[in-house]
Amino acid sequence: MLRALSLEKRYGARRVLSGLSFAVDQGGALVVTGSNGSGKTTLLRMIVGLVAPTRGSLELALPRGRIGYLGHEPLVYRELTATENLDLYGRLYRVPERRERIGMLLERFGLWEARGERVQTYSRGMSQRLALCRALLHDPALLVLDEPHTALDESGALLLDRELEALARNRTLVVSTHDPARLEGIATARLELEVRAR
């Protein structure tokens, strides 16, 4: 489903990624680790098409609309409610039976009671849960998650662990993390990145 060959990314003179090659089969789960500054976020942004490689190739065997992405920012509108945010994304992605799907995701991620509140009143953990709902709303074939456990309390982290375990049965996952032990049960491949010298 996803194949990279000799990927390189530079920002001016700064080399972030160099000579990176890997493959993820359909239904696989690639866990990406590395210290801060090693290029994890850059790689994930490259996979979803937000950043172009400087050199090398990245082949993706599905349309961009079949990707679910969670970055460092939740990518939701703070002045809208959870329901309004998900309804907007559902219309953009033409999600069939979107109201039922929105309700199911809000219930699953513990946001049903807060569905009518503006996101600006949410804690960081609640915003992260809503961002996960957004990423899953259109039932993506490939799910790309950058540090998805960020800001979640222990109950939220356990909920996400269970969700990822269920998703790994029939989805392709690429997940960056500082805590690879959490993903040990689902990982089919691992990629450890290192901070690159200039």
How would you describe this structure to a colleague?
This protein has five helices and eight strands. The protein has one domain (2-192): Rossmann fold (3-Layer(aba) Sandwich), CATH 3.40.50.300. It has a five-stranded parallel beta sheet, sandwiched between helices. The model has no long low-confidence stretch (mean pLDDT 94). Helix 2 (82-92) crosses helix 3. Strand 1 (2-11) and strand 2 (14-24) form a beta hairpin. With 198 residues, it is an alpha/beta fold. The chain has helices at 40-47, 82-92, 98-108, 124-136, 154-167; strands at residues 2-11, 14-24, 29-33, 55-60, 67-70, 142-146, 172-176, 189-192.
Q: What's this entry about, in short?
A:
This protein is an alpha/beta fold. The protein has helices at residues 40-47, 82-92, 98-108, 124-136, 154-167, and strands spanning 2-11, 14-24, 29-33, 55-60, 67-70, 142-146, 172-176, 189-192.
Task: List key phrases describing it.
globular; five-stranded parallel beta sheet; alpha/beta; 8 strands; Rossmann fold; three-stranded antiparallel beta sheet; 198 residues; 25% strand
Protein topology:
Blueprint: E1 2-11, E2 14-24, E3 29-33, H1 40-47, E4 55-60, E5 67-70, H2 82-92, H3 98-108, H4 124-136, E6 142-146, H5 154-167, E7 172-176, E8 189-192
Parallel strand pairs: 3-7, 3-8, 5-6, 6-7
Antiparallel strand pairs: 1-2, 1-4
Helix pairs in contact: 2-3
CATH topology name: Rossmann fold
Question: How far apart lie the N and C ends?
Answer: 31 Å
For the record, the CATH architecture stands as 3-Layer(aba) Sandwich
Please summarize the sheet with the most strands: 5 strands, parallel
Task: Please compute the radius of gyration using only Cα atoms.
Answer: 17 Å
Question: Average pLDDT, to the nearest integer?
Answer: 94
Low-confidence stretches: none
> What's the helix count?
5
User: How much helix, percentage-wise, in residues?
Assistant: 25-40%
CATH class: Alpha Beta
Total DSSP E strands: 8
Spatial strand arrangement across the major sheet: 5-6-7-3-8
| H-E string | EEEHEEHHHEHEE
% residues in beta strands: 25-35%
Number of domains: 1
